[in-house]
Amino acid sequence: MIVPIGWYLILAAALFSIGLVGVLVRRNIIIMFMCIELMLNSVNLTLVAFSRMHGNLDGQVLSFFVIVVAAAEVTVGLALIVNLFKLRGTTDADSVDALRA
Amino acid sequence: MAVVAQAEAAAGAGEFWVFILIGALALGSALAMVLMRNSVHAALMLVINFFAIAVLYAVLEAQFLAVVQIIVYAGAIVVLFLFVLMLLGVGGQERFTERIRGQKTAAVLLGLAVFVLIGGAAASPFLGEGAACNVPAEIRAAAAGETCVGLTEANAEGNVRGLGFLLFTDYVWPFEVMSVLLVIAALGAMVLGKREEDPADLVDQGESGVPAPFEPDEGSGDGSSTAGGARRADTDAEEGRS
Amino acid sequence: MTTLAFVGEYGVPDPGSPAALAWLIPVVPAVSAALLIIFGKRLGNLAGPVAVAVAGFAAIVSTLVFAQLLGLPEEQRALVTTVATWLEVGPFAVDWALLIDPLSAVMLLLVTWVGLLIHIYSLGYMHGDSRYPRFFAYLNLFLAAMLILVLGESFLTMFVGWELVGLASYLLIGFWFEKPAYASAAKKAFIVNRVGDVGFMIAMFAIYTSLGSLAFSDTLPQAGALTTGTAAAVGLLLLVAAAGKSAQIPLYVWLPDAMAGPTPVSALIHAATMVTAGVYLVARVSPIYATVPEVGLVVAWVGAATALLAALIACTQNDLKKILAYSTVSQLGYMFIAVGLGAQVAGIFHLLTHGFFKALLFLAAGSVMHALADNTDVWKMGGLRKAMPITFGTSLVAWLAIAGLPPFSGFFSKEEVLVAALDTPGAFGIWVVGTLVAGLTAFYMSRWFFLIFLGKPRYETELPEVHPHESPPTMTVPLVILAVGAALGGLLNVRPASLVTFWDPEPGFLEGWLEPSVLAFAGDAPYIAHGPAVFLVLVTGLVGIGAAYALYLRPAPEPEMVRERLGGFYTLARDRFYVDELYATTIERPGHLLADGFAAFDRVVIDGAVNGLGTLTTGLAGVGRRLQTGFVRSYALAVAGGTVLLAVIFLGGAFLTGQG
C-alpha cells in the first residue's frame, strides 16, 4: 500500500485544474477569487510534498510565505471587490468591460 | 525485524487510506465549490477543502502548516469571504448562462490540458516505489528512480522548531519583507475601504442602471462637485441646528 | 624671391595696462546692445546717447591700447590676452583670447572711431524713427561683433565675430523690413555671406587637421610647415570667405542691394568696416599666402576683375547710393590686389583711407537724401552746392580723394597698390587693369559729384515739394571730421614732405608699424620705373574727370550721347552685366527645382511611408480590437492558454522524450 509522492502531485494538479476551470467559468468575482485560493493551496500541497521528498523544510517555509501572500492578497482583493460593488452594484465579472473595444 | 517491517507496513497502509479518503474529499469539495450556484455554499465547500488539505499536510509531516492552514485559511480567509458575501448581499443564485461563446468548453479543455501536463509530466518521475515515503528506508534506497528522503531527520527537534530556525536564519530577509507586505496590504485595504467624501464621484452607472448604493435618491452621478458641496453644506447646516 | 619666414613673437600684456583690459572693447558694446534691446523702449530717445557713449568708450580704450603699443619696442608689440577658456575637447582647445598687434590696433582705431562718428551721425539721421532705440542696439551689436572679429586670437574666435557681423548686417539692412524689397535684400546679404562662411569653416578644418591648433599665435609662425597643397587649399578657401564678406567676384551681388539699409549703416558696415573684414583676413593670414604666392596672385586677379566690373557698372547707375556701393566693391578690389600680391601695407593703407572717404561719401549721400526727402535719383538733384555748403565742401574733399588727386589720401594709397603690382613679376596685367579702373573711378565719382552738387538745380522742377536745407550738426560734424581724415589720411604712410613731391613718396608710419604683424611677400625691387607710371595713373584720372565734365557738366548734361555711342555695352553695364539674372538662372532656379523635387519626394515617399505605416497600424488594430472583449474571463482564458502552451514547450517536450 505505497503512497508515492507522485500521487500527491497528481491530486494537487487536479485541484489546480479544478480551480483554473472555476476561474474561467464562474462569473461571480468572489467565487473566482475563491478558486484562485484553491489554486494557491494546490501549489502549497506540491511544495509540502516535495519538502518531504527532499528531506528539508525549505518547501514548507515557501508554503508559509505563500500563505502570507495569500492573506495579503485576500485583504486587498476583497477591498477591491467591495469598491467594485459600490461602483457597479454587482459582483458579476462580465459587468466590468470598460476595456471592450 | 519482521515486526518492525509489519508495523511500518501498517503505518503505510494508514497513510494509504488517509490519502484515498481525504484526497477524495478534497477533490469532491473542490468540484462542488466550482459547481455550486449559491456562493455561500461554495464558500463552505472551500472550508471543507482547506480542512482536507490541512490533514494532508499533517500526513506529509508538516504539522505546523497543517495548523496554520486551519487557522489562517479556514479560520480567517474563508470567514472574510463569507463576511464580504454577507455584506454585499450577493449570496443568491448565480445564473450560469454564458455570455462568452466557447468559454466553458475552452475552460474545461484547458483544465484537462493543465491536469495532464502537470499531473502527467511533473508527477511521472515520482510514482515509483522509491518515491513512496511510507515504505521502509532500505526498500526505498534499493528502488530505482527518485528516492523519498523523508522529514524524520529535519523534524528531529520538532517541525515548528525546524521551521522557526530556517525562518530566522536563511529566510530572515524574505520574512521581514513579508511583514512589510502585510502592513502595506492592511493600509491598502483601509484606503480602498475608506468611504468617499462625495459618492457621486464614485458612481459610474453604466448600463446596469443600479443607483448608487449610498445615496439611492441622488441623480445618476453627474459628478458635479458643486452639487456635492451643496449637499455637504446642507448637512453642516443641519448639524449646526442640532 | 628670398625665403620668407614669419617670426611672430607673442607676449602677454602687463596686468593693468590698457591691452590687458582690451576685452572691455568688444564686451561693453555687446552688453550695451543686449541692454538696449531689452530696455530700449523705456530709454526712448536716451538710447542714442547711451550707444554713442559706449562707442566713445570703445574708441578711447582702443586709442589707449594703440598708444601702449606705440610705446613698446617693435618686437614686443604682439600681445595675447586670454580672457577665458571657451572649448576644451580632448586635445582641441580654444580660448577666448584677444590678439593685440599693430595690425589689429590699426583696425581697432578705424572701427571704433569711424563707428563713433557714425553713431553720432545716426543721432540726427535716425531721429524720429519708430524703432530708434532698436537701431542703436543693432549698431552696438555690430560694433561688438566687428571688434571680436578684429581682436580674435584664433580662427574660431574671429569666425564668431565674422558670423555676428553677418547677423548684425542682416538686422541692419533689413531694419525697415516693412518693405519686402528691403527684407529680401537683407536675406540676400545673409545667404550670400553664408557661402563665404562655408569656405571659412572648411579652411579652419584644414588648418586644424594639419597644424593642430586654431590660434593665430600657434598657426601663423608654423605656416611654412604647411604642404603646398594644403596651403593652396586654405588660401583659396579663405579667398572664398573673404570674397563673401568683402563683396568680391563672384559673391559681390549682395552689397549693392544692401543699400536698402539706413544710410549710416551703409557707411558703417558697407563701406568702412565690415566689408574690409575680408581684406583684414587675407592680411592676417599673410604667412599662409606667402608660402603659395600663386594663390595670392589669384586673389589679386579676383580683386582686379572685381574692381573693373564694379567700376563699369558704377558708371551707369543713377541711384546715388548704388553708385557708391559699386564704387566700394571696386575699391575693395584694389585692396584685394594689394593683399593678394603680398603688399599688405598698401592694402591696409588703402583700407584705412577708403574707410575715411567712403564713409564720408555715404554720410554725405545720407545728408543729401535727408534734405531731399529720401530721393536717391541723381538726375533729380543738381546744384545743391548752395543749399548744403558743408555737405558740398566735405563731398568735394571725398571726391578728390577717391578720384586719386594728390595730395589727398586716396592718391597715395592707390599708388601704393599699383606700385605693388609693378614690383611683382607677372602682375603687369593687374597694373594695367588697376590704372584703367583708376580712370573709371575718377569718371563715375565725378559724374556723381557733378550731378548732385553742380549744374542746374533740377530738383526744383523734378521735386517741387522739397526744399533742401543743410543737415543738423550731429550729421555735419562727423562729415567735417571725416573730411579731415580723407584729406590728410595719406600721412598715415607717407612723410609730410611727400604731399608735395607726390611722384616719389617716402614710406611713412604704417610701413614699419605693420611689419611685425604681416609677412609682406611682394617684390620690392622696382620692376618697372615708378615715376612715369605714377604720372600715367594721374593722367588717367584727370581724363576720367574731364570726360565726366564734358558729358555731365558742360553747358548741359548730355547723357543721351554716351548711351548712343556705347549702345549695347551701356545697357549691359546699366543692367549690372546681368550677373544677378545669371545667378537666378544658374543657382536659384535649379535650387528651386531641386527643392521642389525634394518636397515632392518628402510628400510622396517619406510622408507616404509614414502615413502608410499609420494606415497599416490602424487597419491591423481594427482587426486586433475584436480580440478585446473587455471580459476579464476572456483575458484569463488567454493567460491560461499561454501558460499551457509554455508548459507544453517546457514540460511536454521532456515528457514526450521520456526524460524525467
Provide the descriptors you would attach to this structure in a database record:
heterotrimer, B: 242 residues, mainly alpha, globular, disordered C terminus, C: 660 residues, two-stranded antiparallel sheet, 26 helices, 69% helix
Q: Tally the helices of chain C.
A: 26
Number of strands of chain A: 0
Largest sheet of chain A: none
Distance between the termini of chain C: 96 Å
The first-to-last residue Cα distance of chain A is: 57 Å
Secondary-structure element pattern of chain C, one letter each: HHEEHHHHHHHHHHHHHHHHHHHHHHHH
Biggest interface, chains and residues, is: A-B, 77 and 107 residues
Q: Label the structural class of chain A.
A: mainly alpha
Residue-averaged pLDDT of chain A: 89
Oligomer: heterotrimer
**Which ranges of chain A are low-confidence, i.e. pLDDT below 50, for 5 or more consecutive residues?**
none
Estimated helix fraction of chain C = 55-70%
Unreliable stretches covering 5 or more consecutive residues of chain C: none
Share in β-strands of chain A: under 5%
Summary, kept brief:
By secondary structure, chain A is mostly helical. Helix content of chain A is 77%, strand content 0%. Chain C is mostly helical.
What features would you describe in this structure?
The complex is a heterotrimer of chains A (101), B (242) and C (660). The termini of chain A are far apart. Chain A is built from three helices and no strands. In chain A, 67% of the residues are buried. Chain A has 101 residues and is an all-alpha fold. Chain A is 77% helix and 0% strand. Chain B is mainly alpha-helical and 242 residues long. In chain B, 66% of the residues lie in helices and 0% in strands. The C terminus of chain B is likely disordered. Chain B contains nine helices and no strands. The longest helix of chain B has 34 residues. Chain B is globular. With 660 residues, chain C is mainly alpha-helical. Helices cover 69% and strands 3% of the residues of chain C. Chain C has a two-stranded antiparallel ribbon with strand order 1-2. In chain C, α16 runs parallel beside α20. Chain C starts with 23 loop residues before the first helix and ends with a helix. Chains in contact: A-B, A-C, B-C. The interface between A and B is large, with 77 and 107 residues.
